Amino acid sequence: MADAGVAIAWEQVRRNLRAAAGAKLFDQWIKPAALAVGTDGECVRLTLPSRFMANYVRSHYAERLLLEFRQALPGVRTLVIDTGAALPERVLVEDAKPASARGAAPLPVAAPLAAPAAAAMPARDRFAFDARFTFDRFVTDASNRVAANAARALAAPGVPQFSPLYLHGGTGQGKTHLLHATGHAFHAAHPQATALYMPAERFMFEFVKAMRARDTFSFKERLRGVDLLLIDDLQFIAGKETTQEEFFHTVNECMTAGKRLVIAADRSPQLLDGVEPRLVSRLGAGLVVDIKAPDYALRHAILSARLAEMPHLDVPADVIELLAMRITANIRELEGALNRLVAYGQLVGEAITMDFALQTLGELLRGAQKRVTIDEIQKAVSAHYEVKQLDLVSERRAVAIARPRQIAMYLAKKLTTRSLPEIGRKFGNRDHSTVIHAVRRIEDLRGKDSEIDGAVRNLMRQLEG
Fold this sequence. Notes:
Elements: H1 4-21, H2 23-30, E1 34-35, E2 43-48, H3 51-72, E3 78-83, E4 91-93, E5 110-111, H4 145-155, E6 165-169, H5 175-189, E7 195-199, H6 200-212, H7 216-224, E8 228-232, H8 241-256, E9 260-265, H9 277-283, E10 287-291, H10 296-308, H11 317-326, H12 331-348, H13 354-360, H14 362-368, H15 374-385, H16 389-392, H17 399-415, H18 420-426, H19 432-446, H20 450-464
Parallel strand pairs: 2-3, 6-9, 6-10, 7-8, 8-9
Antiparallel strand pairs: 1-2, 3-4, 4-5
Helix pairs in contact: 1-2, 1-3, 4-5, 6-7, 8-9, 10-11, 10-12, 15-17, 15-20, 17-19, 18-19
C-alpha cells in the first residue's frame, strides 16, 4: 500500500491542480488517477484507466505533478504514470544531485525504470527510452521496412552485422521512434548491458559544458563506455568544428571497440553541409537507410493501429480516411491530429463525427490539403474509366458515362471548396440538385459496391498524392 504521508500529499496535490487547471480539466484527466501499490516516499506511482489517458497526463501534467509532490514531500524524486494493468513504463527522474544541491524546479527526463545492473550509471542515462516508441507500435510498409528491420537486427543478440546504422528521412517520419525502439529491444536482449540515447544538440551542450569545467574525460568515458549509443538529429552539429572533432573520435572509438552505434539525421551523410569529410566517410561506412514519406496506405494503417490501442473510442471510417488523405506531411503531425481530435471529443463530451472533425481540425486540414481543381478531377476520372473528358460535361446519359460523371461530381464536392452551383456549371451547366443527387448516389454505392468504393479511393489518393 502507499505510505500514509504520500496519500495525504496526494490529496493536497489534487486540490492544488483542481484550482489551477479548473474543474472540467481536472475531472477529465487528473481525477481518474489513483495512487498505485508500491508508492513510497521517494517514488510516487499513479495509474489511470487507459493508455491514452496515461500518455496525455504524462505529456501535459507530469512536470506539474512532480513539482506539486516535491513541495508537499521534499523526499520525492521520481514519478511513474501508467495504466493499472501494466508495469510502470515511464519515469520522471531528477538529475542525480545531492538533495542539498537540488533547486525547487524539477529536471524531468523520460525514462523507463532502471534495471538493477545499471544502478552505477547516472540517473539520466538509465535506459532513457520513451515507452511509447517500441517496435510493436512501429507500423511498416515499403517506405520504412528496411530501416525497421535493420534497427531490429542491430539490437538483437550476437555480434552485429553492421555498425553504425545511419537512418535518414524527413521530419516526423519515424527516425526517433526507431532509435527508442532499438534501445528497448537491446535492453530486453541484453539486460546487463548499457545504452544511451542522446540528441546531437545535447551532445554538443554537454561537451561544451565539460570543456568549460575542464572535465572532458568524464564526458568521453560516459559516452564511449556504453554498449549501445544512439544519436539523434545529427544535422545540428553542422558547422560546429570542435563538437564534430569529439563526435568523430566517439564514432571511431565505438567502431574500433565493436560497439553498436545508431545515428539519425534529416539527410544522408553526403548531404550534411558543414560536416567534415572524414566524419561523413565514417558515417557512410556502416549501413545507410533512407526512410521515405508515408503513402496513404501507411498513414491509414498507422491511424488504425493507434485506434486499436483505444478500443473504447468510436471513430468513424470516413474520419480516419479524411485524416489519412489530408495530413500527408509526416507521421508525427498525423498522430497529433488524431490525439487532438480524441482529446477534444472527450473534453466536450461529443461523439467524433465528420462534422466534428472538420470543426476541430479545420485549420490543420485546410493547411494540409492539396489544391485540387475540378479540371484535374475530370481528367483523372476520364482516364480511369477510359472515357473522353468532354463526355463528362455532355448531355449523354448512358451508364458508362453517367456513373463516371457522378463520381467526378462527388470528388469535386469532397476535394474542392467549390459550391454546388459552381460544380454544376463545370459539368455542362447542370443544376445544383443534380450534384446533390450524384453525391448521395455515390455515397450510397460506396457502401454497397466494393468496385466503386475502390475506384473512388484510388482516385482520391491519386488526386491528393
